[in-house]
Specification:
The structure holds 2 protein chains of 2 kinds.
Chain A lengths: L3 E5 L1 H7 L5 H8 L3 H8 L7 H11 L3 H4 E5 L1
Antiparallel strand pairs in A: 1-2
Helix pairs in contact in A: 2-3
Chain B lengths: L2 H26 L7 H29 L10 H31 L3 H29 L3
The chains are: A alpha+beta, B mainly alpha.
Chain lengths: 71, 140
């Protein structure tokens, strides 16, 4: 998958979920606030399990949380 | 700063202070290495100091933020820890090889003990340093 990078819409989803904080999301999915921040900034790609947990928190399909973007 | 990062700072500080004092003291001894009893007398307070700094440091961190105290590593922190351990292990292997090589020329049991101990402490400090840098950066 060269030439593509993983992007996330977690920031937007948090905004639409009543400005949920990174810490609150982290508590719900079992990671630290710093890990949520790293995922949002594209510095860290979460495990499949955590990715599904994030989607579950917002009640959306996985592909609405993560998608590929051309570099 | 996460609890895990604070924990690594405490461990790194404890090792640098205590073992730094040990090796500087050893290097400054006028008559070279002391006998076994002398070396054990130097090492014993180092082990105690490392333990005390770690215990006091973690207690202070726990008191200041009880909600974080004793939290397990999350998946990103585990990945960082694995990466840092791999780097530290490489440093340890190279350090031990150099230490053993050194003892071929300057062989005594206590030179070997100190050379291997220095390699071990260096590897530990590198591991903590790599972890802290990765925690700051976001990922390994």
């Amino acid at each position: 998958m060269t030439g593509k990078r993983l992007t996330t819409s977690i920031r937007t989803l948090r905004f639409h979920a009543g400005e949920m904080t990174q810490g609150e999301l982290g508590e719900k999915i079992g990671v630290t606030r710093q890990t949520v921040a790293a995922i949002e900034q594209g510095k860290y790609s979460p495990t499949l399990e955590t990715a599904f947990r994030i989607a579950d928190v917002f009640g959306v399909p996985l592909e609405q949380v993560f998608s590929w973007a051309e570099e | 700063m996460t609890y895990q990062e604070k924990s690594r700072w405490i461990a790194l500080t404890a090792n640098l202070l205590a073992w730094g004092w040990y090796f500087v003291t050893l290097a400054r001894l006028p008559a070279g290495l002391p006998d076994e009893r002398g070396l054990l007398g130097l090492m014993a307070p180092v082990f105690v100091a490392v333990a005390i700094i770690n215990i006091v440091g973690h207690v202070v961190v726990a008191v200041l933020k009880p909600s974080e105290a004793g939290t397990d590593l999350d998946e990103r922190e585990k990945a960082i820890s694995r990466h840092a351990s791999a780097v530290g292990y490489t440093v340890l292997c190279v350090g031990v090889a150099i230490a053993l090589g050194t003892t071929l020329w300057y062989w005594t049991a206590w030179v070997a003990v100190n050379a291997v101990m220095a390699a071990f402490i260096l590897a530990e400090c590198v591991r903590y340093g790599v972890e802290i840098a990765a925690f700051r950066r976001g990922y390994a």
